[in-house]
């Protein structure tokens, strides 16, 4: 299959909004090439710096991929209309190029480097060397065509919340697992059993591969399905990094399978929608016990569940 790579060069303040538009358009993944992140990476002590600073973009570039099929023109037109509606003409520079599926993965790999998240997690591309410090928990990722290489703020918010709430021995469900990153993190942080679900077969395949890569296949089961439709409780933690409207739809299902005082980590909420999501959580009996944000992205930690 052929794919269209869409690369949008944008001022930094629009990065999250553009990423969100791609996600709402249904692209499997979003890659952010942010010169600020590269500079941070280059400041860290490295055994070997494989990145040529002169090759870095001067402004952030947000990339996503759409299949070249009969829906492509309509999806591109919808994207351009939305970009113009939010920011007017001339803010974004859009470049597209067709690439073969076999070349897809390599097109963004050069910019994907190990990143530290929270207190002890490190997300490392499968093909990069990284010498872990004492106490660090290293997740190896090859997201392929699925969302979730650990650089997106909404993923990072989930990772840091997982790190804070997991004490060991929990049953966790990761809804919208993408590359499997959150499910793998939960297992490496001590969960006793993790179910990872996604409705995209490409994501399910990538997640299964990453689960094996991290040698947590005895703890993590990856299934294809719609939200929590076929998942049985009781569980200790539900984590979901999807868009606000999907989180709202998920809230009741999550409450039904959570143990009393179970925890719901809800992320992927773009600025302006956090009140809608909090309202839906309250209306289903959840208590919000933590709120975190990074740039335009919000995550909520809610407590609630059903008595047996
Ligand atoms: C933003 S990505 C999150 C990936 C990963 N969990 C992370 O945090 O980086 C959202 C994922 O949710 C999946 N998804 C969207 N709607 C879904 C649904 N109704 N049921 C299951 N998965 C869904 C998408 O296929 C995508 O892989």
UniProtKB/TrEMBL annotation:
It catalyses: L-lysyl-[protein] + 3 S-adenosyl-L-methionine = N(6),N(6),N(6)-trimethyl-L-lysyl-[protein] + 3 S-adenosyl-L-homocysteine + 3 H(+). It is found in: Cytoplasm. The keyword Methyltransferase applies. One of its GO terms (cellular component) is cytoplasm. Keywords: Cytoplasm, Methyltransferase, Ribonucleoprotein, Ribosomal protein, S-adenosyl-L-methionine, Transferase. S-adenosyl-L-methionine binds at residues 155, 176, 198, 241. One of its GO terms (molecular function) is protein-lysine N-methyltransferase activity. It is an enzyme of class 2 (transferase). One of its GO terms (biological process) is methylation. Its main location: cytoplasm. Its EC number is 2.1.1.-. The keyword Cytoplasm applies. Methylates ribosomal protein L11. Belongs to the methyltransferase superfamily. PrmA family. This is Ribosomal protein L11 methyltransferase. The lineage of its organism: Bacteria, Bacillati, Bacillota, Clostridia, Eubacteriales. The gene is prmA.
């Amino acid at each position: 299959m052929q794919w269209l790579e869409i690369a949008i060069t944008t001022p930094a303040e629009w990065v999250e909004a553009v990423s969100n538009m791609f996600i709402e358009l249904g692209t499997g993944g979003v890659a952010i090439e942010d010169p600020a992140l590269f500079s941070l990476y280059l400041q860290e002590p490295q055994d070997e710096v494989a990145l040529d600073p002169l090759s870095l973009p001067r402004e952030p570039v947000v990339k996503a991929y759409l299949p070249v099929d009969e829906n492509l023109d309509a999806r591109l037109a919808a994207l351009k209309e939305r970009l113009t509606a939010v920011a007017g003409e001339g803010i974004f520079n859009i470049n597209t190029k067709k690439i073969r599926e076999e070349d897809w993965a390599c097109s963004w790999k050069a910019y994907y480097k190990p990143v530290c998240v929270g207190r002890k997690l490190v997300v490392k591309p499968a093909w990069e060397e990284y010498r872990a410090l004492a106490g660090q928990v290293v997740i190896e990722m090859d997201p392929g065509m699925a969302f979730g290489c650990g650089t997106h703020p909404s993923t990072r918010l989930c990772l840091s919340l997982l790190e804070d709430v997991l004490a060991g021995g929990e049953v966790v469900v990761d809804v919208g697992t993408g590359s499997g990153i959150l499910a793998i993190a939960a297992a490496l942080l001590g969960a006793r059993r993790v179910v990872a679900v996604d409705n995209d077969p490409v994501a399910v395949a990538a997640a299964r591969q990453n689960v094996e890569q991290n040698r947590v296949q005895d703890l993590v089961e990856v299934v294809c399905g719609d939200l929590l439709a076929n998942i049985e409780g009781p569980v200790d933690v539900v984590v979901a990094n999807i868009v606000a409207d999907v989180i709202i739809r998920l809230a009741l299902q999550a409450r039904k399978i959570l143990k009393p005082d179970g925890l719901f980590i809800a992320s992927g909420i773009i600025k302006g929608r956090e009140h809608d999501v909090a309202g839906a959580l309250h209306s289903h009996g959840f208590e919000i016990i933590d709120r975190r944000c990074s740039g335009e992205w919000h995550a909520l930690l809610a407590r609630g569940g059903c008595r047996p």
